[in-house]
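Figure 2 data, in text form.
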Amino acid sequence: MSALIDLYARIAVCPDCDLCQSRNRAVPGEGPEEAEIMFVGEAPGFYEDQQGRPFVGPAGRFLEELLASIGSRRDQVYIGNVIKCRPPENRDPLPKEIEACRQWLSCQIELIKPKVIATLGRYSLAWFFPDESIGRVHGQTCYRDGICFLPMYHPAAALHAASMRRTIEEDFRKLPAALEEARKGPREEVAEPEQMRLF
């Protein structure tokens, strides 16, 4: 059994916050263990909770369209979320839920060792860069701990505001170049306040 599969089994029975009482299924994440690109969203929604897979609803279909637009497929990238269980009624994740789940995403990053992490939405951005605003940094790459980060709006934003679709598409088109740069090795990293942490 691979370390990632073992991790999935542990996430499936995680009791560390109250979401374990309301979830149908935990949604650990999916993708190849050697994925160079990792997408990190916010939390599972209704369809994800039913199937135990990330990004399988309308936002997931848009994500697959975005991947196709850069000549990629979802089975070539890793897709996960900050928290692994659906908050009731798709409410925002609570700080204590994010903290309870921190170990799982940290382990996934350590096991997969992606070259690029694309953060999807403000909760994902805040997990890595708590003092940044997605409106300010979306579409801009930066490096930390040898990983290239490319913050983006969540694909679901385009479902609620059609004007966001073009912005998301433009940011997404920067992924291939970000990956090519990341493959060349570590670049200059952003200055990091003491309170910020990656893992």
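Caption note: The mean pLDDT is 92.
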